[in-house]
């Protein structure tokens, strides 16, 4: 009880530190939510394409022009090469197609006439190229069937008019889960930094000479003393977990009530247990309060960069990802990323997440064993 009361006093003196990291979490989460709002409606983007016909007005050329116009935006520029070049430069248009002389005749005679193109390399130019390529492939295919212009055009248009119906069979709201994923990933930084700082400060306070000597000459076993300290710090960690879970309901909403949200919450609890034991180990190693901030910078910030908290894992080099596997944060973030892709929550889909949790628990056991070994040696020396 004395240990717990002392810990509360120390926590009260350092509560601004927890408020700081919680504030960072709220700020970045709110920023992410405001910038990730999206709609479920899809609207196709059309490029702006200009077609210059140097051939005669034939059925073949007119059908090509009609198809291009129906799949692109109308361009309002002067009919001159200089105007087209300026429009391409300023991206008022994205693609210019030049139909050469004798195109229709060469096409019907299987001479594969080439269409000259002028473009500026960007997304819209690539989209324009796909539109044109689709038409050319279809027209060349049916040219092997018939040379009759009317019949050929009818076959081409019939094929190009067919559209694929996309049916959404999943009810998984990936947008909302992505927001929850961002929040719970970022808590790795806030939780680790807060726990390491507070617990290290608490333990360093118990290392002052008078308290250390009294503990050494007391009848209390060092394991029992460590258990009391660990239990007291665990209660603080439990408070941190409850606080961040409640905060997630406020910031994310009903998504946290889903089965995926429950897995996020459980995963955070396992990570907090691991972080508590890690902080307890560091607190037994560190003797100087002035080095605690440096430890936080190396551990919390470093692991956040290596394990995908600040930068998504998909953007990290493989060597960095492999390096991050030596840290518990990697398995916590990996589980969160897997949860975001879960359409159904059952034992089979949860297997890789459970494996990650087991790894974090193993980290916790190792940290506790190392803490007891270090505490025993220090007590003998003292």
Notes on the structure:
The structure is a single chain. α3 packs parallel to α7 and α14 runs antiparallel to α15. The protein is 69% helix and 4% strand. The model is unreliable at 37-42 (pLDDT under 50). The two termini are 24 Å apart. The longest helix has 35 residues, at 347-381. By secondary structure, the chain is mainly alpha-helical. It is built from 15 helices and three strands. It has helices spanning 2-13, 15-35, 59-70, 81-89, 103-108, 123-143, 149-160, 174-205, 209-217, 222-252, 259-285, 292-306, 318-324, 328-340, 347-381, and strands at 49-53, 95-99, 116-119. The chain has a three-stranded mixed beta sheet with strand order 1-2-3, with helices on one face.
What are the salient characteristics of this protein?
382 residues; 3 strands; mainly alpha; 15 helices; 4% strand; three-stranded mixed beta sheet
